[in-house]
Specification:
The complex is a heterodimer of chains A (about 400) and B (about 290).
Chain A (H helix, E strand, L loop, with lengths): L12 H15 L34 E7 L15 H8 L2 E7 L2 H9 L5 E4 L1 H9 L3 E2 L23 E2 L2 E2 L2 E7 L1 E5 L11 H4 L9 E4 L5 H11 L13 H15 L2 E5 L2 H10 L4 E4 L1 H9 L4 E4 L5 E11 L5 H11 L2 H11 L2 E2 L13 H4 L5 H4 L2 E3 L19 H12 L1
Chain B lengths: L9 H11 L1 H30 L3 E2 L6 E2 L5 H8 L1 H35 L2 H16 L2 H12 L11 H25 L3 H9 L4 H30 L2 H6 L6 H11 L3 H24 L7
Antiparallel strand pairs in B: 1-2
Helix pairs in contact in B: 4-7, 4-9, 5-7, 6-7, 7-9, 8-9, 9-12, 11-12
Classes of the chains: A alpha/beta (about 400), B mainly alpha (about 290).
Chain lengths: ~400, ~290
């Protein structure tokens, strides 16, 4: 519904040309890049019966990937950041990457059947499994799989009934960040972003997505134990309402919601935002811009993401797709992608390959107790993910409408 | 002696056939543009409308093609959608008004005051911002409005209106400029000779004659503002417009049917707007 062209009576030629150009310019370039926006579904369901690949054949010469920005770098963004060309050289598989901006875009792209593999987040992975779009993965064909952290293997977002549906790519937590020169004392709890009498009123930020409701639910788990929330992604009507009420109250102290990370970097740097939820990579970028910020994993724990490479059920280039999955979790490539994107690598040996030797410590790659406090993004579904069977839980479309309502 | 028979090739025969059958000629000429209008434009709108009556399987994300009023029911009963729709209309009206106030004097100066040579340059100058990416301009405003920026007014609905006014200004200037260019300068002289001063000339001569052009410009700015969701994401702070609701339902929830139902709201608003404009008679003179 953009620029219907009104009929102008005999406009001079220059104006006609100008309007045509204007219409073109106005319609182009209107896409935003959002960062990794994971969320997924779990619980007991029976996926369509699809056989995993038995053995690798000869390489098919190419592989088509759907990936988050920064997951398949070929040096075009930074000549030094390139793990695609070495892969092509080593395997003879030419990589064609389609970058997706959201999990839903990934799901839709995979459903076209044009792609062989996808870097799915927790909110996409189970949907892909349930709809039969992706196949189980024969991890015996992926030598590097044995070095993946056990904390990431056969998890509810990348497996069903003990069958692996992908290889873990990396993980990260949503952290609490604050301007150390403007916020004191240093917060150690999410209460700082939910307190209606916050001294930082108008300078608080929150993530602009329905999945942020889980952050409120997580806070309520400890702030209001009587609600009985066991899993921030399994909320019944009453629990969702409590989270929504909390977020509506939070809105009065919010300055702005962020969805793409450049926006978050800029507002923390400029001081429009002094406290709020963030990613480690954002904190690093703000620090690189010389703004004094600190991050912590608050005592309530946190939400986070864990991405998985999956292979299409109807992959036209399965061997190359397997080779890619093996490559992306190989120590060297996994270290490169983790450093470039700003997340913890999934391969335990990747920590020796990072250019910044303290990288794995910064991102707590080997710290399972750190990640045990992280509730990875999962798509909320009607079937309660915490195992309750006496109530119906709220699904993601209800969360989306609740989010619209919260923003008002 | 035999008459030389002109070899009637297939091309010639076709040409002759078309020459005799004006109807066939016309339909062949129009079929391509009509197919485009019918399929690509009206077809898309129809598909949108039909989709609005479906629902999605929340887990697999597949569209369930079963008729339901649920989307429209939710849309009408939810207070939040009314608030968002009214806010969006408010923003569109404000942007249109601001652009009109800025564009009219500018277009007048371009069309009636500037020399023909300067005129051409001014048109180019008005157009240049359109060559820069929309995102670059929106982010530039974000930087300017940030509290340590040049303006430092902060983000919110006002910032959104300001940024949209800047973005769509050329779309208002150009139609008005085109309208004013067609206004004979002699009419202004005549008004002056008859004793009308500036304001009266404007009210009784310039405005009525350029009103259709103003309407054309306002359709641009109004509809562009009504559909926008990116600017408000960049400088809108915590506010949202109709476009964001549509975007959230497609982008985040993959609920295409509900998004389609929400998307019919701006379509209806535009239809109402066009109907209102038509009643003023402005469209007849276009």
């Amino acid at each position: 519904m953009r620029s219907p062209r009104p009929r102008l009576a005999r406009p001079s030629l220059v104006v006609t040309a100008a309007l045509a150009l204007a219409a073109v310019a106005g319609c182009g370039g209107s896409s935003t890049t959002t960062g990794s926006a994971p969320a997924g579904a779990g619980g007991a369901f029976t996926p369509p019966k699809i056989e995993a690949l038995k053995s690798l054949g000869a390489g098919e010469g190419q592989v088509n990937l759907v990936a988050w920005a920064g997951y398949a770098e070929d040096g075009s963004n930074d000549p030094k950041v390139d793990w695609v060309h070495p892969f092509e050289k080593a395997t003879g598989c030419t990589v064609n990457t389609k970058t997706a901006g959201t999990s839903d875009e990934m799901v839709n792209l995979m459903k076209t059947g044009e792609y062989d593999a996808v870097s799915a987040s927790g909110d996409a992975s189970l949907r892909l499994i349930a709809s039969g779009t992706v196949a189980p993965v024969n991890t015996d064909l992926i030598p590097n799989y044995k070095d993946v952290f056990d904390g990431l293997k056969l998890k509810p977002w990348n497996s069903v009934n003990g069958v692996a549906y992908g290889v873990p790519h990396g993980r990260g937590a949503n952290l609490l960040m604050w301007r150390s020169d403007k916020v004191s004392p240093a917060p150690d709890s999410w209460s700082v972003v939910f307190d209606p009498n916050s001294p930082y009123k108008g300078k608080v930020t929150a993530y602009d997505s329905p999945i942020y409701i889980a952050d409120a639910a997580l806070y309520l788990m400890s702030a209001k134990p009587e609600l009985g929330i066991k899993d921030p992604y399994a909320l019944d009507d009453k629990q969702l309402q409590a989270a929504v009420d909390l977020l509506k109250q939070q809105k009065s102290i919010i300055g702005e919601y962020w969805s793409d990370y450049t926006k978050a970097v800029q507002s923390f740097k400029g001081g429009d935002t002094v406290v709020g939820t963030t990613w480690q990579v954002i904190a690093n970028l703000v620090k690189a811009e010389k703004a004094p910020v600190d991050v912590t994993l608050p005592k309530e724990g946190s939400t986070g993401w864990s991405d998985t490479w999956m292979v299409a059920a109807k992959a036209k280039h399965p061997t190359c797709a397997y080779k890619w999955m093996d490559w992306i979790i190989s120590p060297k490539a996994n270290a490169q992608v983790a450093e470039w994107f700003g997340e913890a690598p999934s391969n335990s040996k990747a920590c020796q390959e990072t250019s910044d030797k303290s990288f794995c410590d910064t991102y707590h790659a080997t710290d399972e107790s750190y990640f045990s406090k992280v509730h990875y993004w999962t798509t909320p579904i009607a079937q309660c993910l915490d195992g309750r069977t006496d109530v119906k839980c709220t699904d993601y479309s209800q969360w989306t409408r609740a989010w619209t309502e919260i923003k008002g | 002696m035999t008459t030389p028979v002109v070899a009637a090739g297939p091309r010639r025969r076709a040409a002759a056939f078309l020459h005799r059958h004006a109807g066939v000629r016309l339909s062949l000429l129009l079929s391509a543009p009509l197919a485009w209008l019918g399929l690509a434009y009206l077809g898309a709108l129809a598909a949108l409308f039909v989709t609005a009556f479906w629902s999605t399987d929340v887990f697999t994300g597949d569209v369930v093609r079963v008729f339901t009023w649920a989307n429209f029911h939710d849309l009408v009963t939810g207070d939040v959608y009314r608030t968002v729709a009214l806010r969006s209309v408010g923003v569109a009206v404000a942007v249109t008004a601001i652009d009109l106030v800025i564009a009219f004097p500018m277009a007048f100066a371009m069309a009636k005051v500037a020399s023909p040579r300067a005129q051409r340059w001014l048109v180019i100058l008005v157009l240049t911002p359109l060559w820069a990416s929309y995102l670059v301009k929106a982010y530039a405003w974000r930087v300017m409005l940030s509290s340590d920026g040049v303006l430092g007014w902060g983000y919110g609905l006002t910032a959104t209106i300001l940024t949209l006014s800047y973005l769509w200004l050329p779309y208002m200037i150009l139609p008005i400029y085109a309208g004013l260019e067609r206004l004979p300068g002699s009419l202004l002289d005549a008004a002056g000779d008859l004793g009308a001063r500036g304001w009266r000339t404007f009210r009784t001569v310039v405005w009525p004659l350029t009103f259709p052009a103003v309407v054309a410009g306002s359709i641009f700015t109004f509809s562009l503002s009504l559909g926008d969701y990116i600017t408000v994401k960049i400088v809108g702070g915590k506010s949202q417009l109709i476009g964001n609701v549509v975007y959230d339902n497609i982008g985040a929830a993959n609920n295409l049917p509900f998004a389609a139902a929400v998307a019919t709201v701006p379509v209806v608003i535009m239809l109402v707007y066009l109907a209102a404009v038509r009643r003023t008679g402005a469209l007849d003179n276009l």
